[in-house]
Predict the structure.
Amino acid sequence: MKIERIFTVSSRKQLLSQLKKELLELAHLGTSIGVLEWDRQVNMPPGGSGARAETLAYLAGLWHKKFTSPEFFKLVNGLMAEVDAGTLNSQELCIVKETWRDLERRRKLPTEFIEKITKVTSEANDVWAVAKKASDFKKFQPYLEKIITLKRRQASLLGFKKSPYDALLDGYEPGMTSDEVSIIFKELRDFLVPFIGKIKNSKTSINPDILRGDFSIREQEKFIKSVAKKIGYDFNTGRLDISSHPFSTSFHPTDARITTRYREDDLFYSLGSVVHEAGHAMYEQGLLKEHFGTPLAESRSLGIHESQSRIWENLVGKSRSFWKYFYPHLQKEFPKPFTEVSFENFYRAINCVKPSLVRTEADEVTYNLHVILRFEIEKELIEGTLEVADLPKIWNSKIKEYFGLKVPNDRLGVLQDTHWSGGSFGYFPTYALGNLYSVQLYESAKRSISGLEEYKSRGNFKPFRDWLRKNIHIHGKLYSADELVKKATGEPLTPKYWMDYIKNKFSEIYSL
Amino acid sequence: MKIERIFTVSSRKQLLSQLKKELLELAHLGTSIGVLEWDRQVNMPPGGSGARAETLAYLAGLWHKKFTSPEFFKLVNGLMAEVDAGTLNSQELCIVKETWRDLERRRKLPTEFIEKITKVTSEANDVWAVAKKASDFKKFQPYLEKIITLKRRQASLLGFKKSPYDALLDGYEPGMTSDEVSIIFKELRDFLVPFIGKIKNSKTSINPDILRGDFSIREQEKFIKSVAKKIGYDFNTGRLDISSHPFSTSFHPTDARITTRYREDDLFYSLGSVVHEAGHAMYEQGLLKEHFGTPLAESRSLGIHESQSRIWENLVGKSRSFWKYFYPHLQKEFPKPFTEVSFENFYRAINCVKPSLVRTEADEVTYNLHVILRFEIEKELIEGTLEVADLPKIWNSKIKEYFGLKVPNDRLGVLQDTHWSGGSFGYFPTYALGNLYSVQLYESAKRSISGLEEYKSRGNFKPFRDWLRKNIHIHGKLYSADELVKKATGEPLTPKYWMDYIKNKFSEIYSL
C-alpha cells in the first residue's frame, strides 16, 4: 500500500525531520534497553534479575508499540512515495528505505506469531541447556521441531523467491541469498577439507602449550587494555569489563563497550576476545554521531560487523607485524614464560591449527568449515529436506567427513551451539562471510596503504583504522553490503582472497 | 474537581488494578532512568555524557507525559471519589491518596513554569560552581535572586496556609510545617550553642590524626564490604562501587546499590559513608517487592530516609558496642596504626567534635547546627524578609554566633552547598529531622530489644535490622511520617531523645 505523492518540498522536509525525530526517540529506547542489558550481564546483583527482566520487557514493548504504531507507518509509507518519485537524496533515501524495510519485515509477522515464537524459543533455550548438559538430543528434539515449523511459517510470512531459508538469512545479511552462500561455501569446503588434511599430515608440529603460564588477572587486564588502546579502541568512548561471555555493545558512537573473561593460565583466552570485541566496538565508535538514530549511523549487516572483529583479531592480531611490535612488550610484562619462547615459536603457537569438535574453540583455518557444516544442515532443515530426528546422525557424519573426527556425544556435537534453540536460523553464515569480507578488505587496505605491515610492526595502527573508518564505518547503512565491499575493494565478495591468505599463511607455518 | 461516584465493586477493582498497572509502568521508566543515571555516575566513559543526557531527558519526558496524561488523571480522580466514599481498605487508600497527592502537586505547576525553573536552576548551578571556585558571591547573587522569585511563585502555585516555605518543605517532608520545624530547631539551637561552647572549652583534647595511616584501597574495600555485609546490607540485592560523591540508589527492592570514594590516608572517609549509604539502601531493600511501583513500596519521606542512614552511621557505627566487635578485626586488617591505638583513644577519635565551617565535614554534634542556620536563612529568603544581597553578611554573623568561627571567604561560607543553586529550598531541614528521628527510633528499639548493645558487641545486627524492617521499612508510605514515628516509638517526633543522647555521649567523652 502506497499513498499518492502529494507533498510539497517543505512538507517533505517536515516529514523527513519528523521521521528523524521518531527514529531518534526509538534509538533512545534502544540505548536504554542496551544499558540495562549491559548492566544485567556485567553488574547486576543476582537477586535483581527477575525485576530487571520485567523492566526490559516493558521497554521492549514500548519500542515495539512505537515502531509499529499506525502513525509511524503512515509517516514512513508517505515518504516511500517520495522514494518512488525520486525526490530524495542518497542519505534521505537510505533513511527511508531502510526504515521501511525493517517496518515491512516486522509488520508481516502478526503479534500472535511473535508471542508464540518468543515463548517457544524461550522454553526451548532452557530445555537445550538441560539437554546439552545431559548430552541428550532426544530431550531437545521436540522443541527444535516446533521451532523449525515456526521458522518455516516465518519464512512464508516474510516471503521469498526461491528458498524459505533466504527469508531468514535476509534478516541477518540483507540482500544475500542461500544460492550465493551455497556457491561460496562449496568452493571453501572443496579447498578446506583437503587443506586441513594436509596440515594434519604435516611433519611440522606446533605446541600451543608454550603459551601457558601463570598470569595475574590484574596484569592481564593492564596489558590487554594497552593493546586495545594502541590499536585504536577509544577508552574515552568505551570501557572494558568482565562478563561470563565476551561481547561488545554500543549505546551510541560515543559509548561502545566491550567485555571479556579471564583464565589465569591463558592470556590468549582474554586477549584474543578483546581484540575481536574491540574490532566490533571500533566499528560502532566510527559511525557518525550526527546521524545517530537513523540507518546512516547503523552497522551494515552482521557479516560486515563480523568482518570488523575478525580483521583485527586475525589479520592484525595474529600477524607477524603486529607481534613484531607487541612481543617485546609481552615479554617485558610476562617474562615467564615468554622470555624463553622465541618469536617464531610464539607466532606458530598462536597460529596453531587443530581440527576440533567445537566451533567456538576453532582456529582461523577450521572455523569456516564449522560454519559451512551448520549452514548445510540448517538450510535443509528449513527447506524440509532433513528431519530433525536425523540431525545427530548427519552432524556426526559431516564432522567425520570434513574434520576426520569422531563425535563422542551430542554435547560436543549437535547440541554445542545455542543458536538453533533461540530460533536463529540464517545467523551462522554471517560468521564465515565476516571472515571472507575481512581478508578481502584487508588486501584492499594493503594496496591502498603502502607499508601497512611496516606501520603495524612499529605499533602504528592509525592508517589502517582510518582506512576502515573511511571505507566502512562512516557509511553506516548508506550502501548495501555488496556496494560497500565493491567500493572498498573494487569487486564483489569473493572467497579467493581468504583462500589465498589461508593457503599462504599456513603453508608457510606448516611447511606445506 | 471530583467526578460522581458511579462505580460498582467490580469496576472499582478494575480501576484499582488499572492504577497499579500504570504505576508499575511508571516505575519501570523510573528504574530505567535510575540505571542510566547510576551508570552515568559510576561507569560512563567521559565521551558518552552528551548522548546520555539526551537519552535521560527523553526518558524523563516519557515519564512526565505518562504521569500527567488526561487518562491517568481521570483514573486517579475517579478513585478519589472512592476515597471520599470510604470504600477502600487502608492499602488501597494509601495508593490512591499518595498518587493523587503527587499528581496534584505536579498539576499545579504549569509546563512553562517547570521549563523555566529547570532552565534557570541549570544555569544557576553552573554559575554557582564558578562563583564557589572564585569565592565570589556577587557572581551568583543575580541567579539566586531569580531562583527565589521562582520558588516564591512555586509556593503560591502549590498553595499554603501560613508560610510559603511550607509549600516547599511539604515536597520533601510531607505534612511537616515550618512552624513545627522552627519550634524544634529553636530548642535544639538553645541546647547546642552552649553545649558546643562547653566542648570547645573542655580540657579533654582528642587527636583524630591517630586514625591516619596508609590504607590500600583494595584492603579498604574488602574491610568495608565485610562491615556492610555484617550489619545486614544484602549484596545479593546490592553492590558497592566508586563514584565522585557517595550515594545510594534503588531500582527495585531487589537491586539497591551504594557507592563511595577512597582516600589512601583515611579509612574513615570511605567507611563512614558506606555505613551511611548502606543504611539508606537497607531501607530500600526492606520495602516489600510485591508492592513495587505503588506508594506502599516507596520510602516515606526524606527525613525518614535520612534517619535510616544516620541510625547506622552514628547510633550504630560510632557506638562503643559496634566497635567492641569490629575493632579487633580492624586491628587485624590494619595493624598499622591500630595496634598502637587503644580502644578508648580510638573511640574518642572517631567521635571527635570540632566546630567547623563546612557542613559536610561536620561531626555528630555540630551537624544539626549547620542545618538550623540554613533553615533560618532559607525560610526568611522565601518569606521575603531577607534580601539575597544580605546573605553573606547574615551567614557570617550566624557562624560567628553559633560556632564562634570567622568565615574567611564565601567558598567556605555561603557558597559551600549546591542545594540553593538547584532550587532545593526546604530540603535542608530533613537532614536534621533525620538525626532526630534516628535517635528516637534507636531508643525505642533499645526498649524493645533487650540486650541490643550486647548483640551489637557480638556482631549480631540482625535483631536491630529486623526491628527497623518491621517498624519502618515494610510500611512504605502506608502511614504518614508522624503516624509511623508514633507507631514505632509511642510518641510524636521530639528533639529530647537526640539532645539527651548527645549530652550523655559527649559529656562522657569530653568529661563535661
About this structure: Chain B has 21 helices and three strands. The two ends of chain B are 60 Å apart (CA to CA).
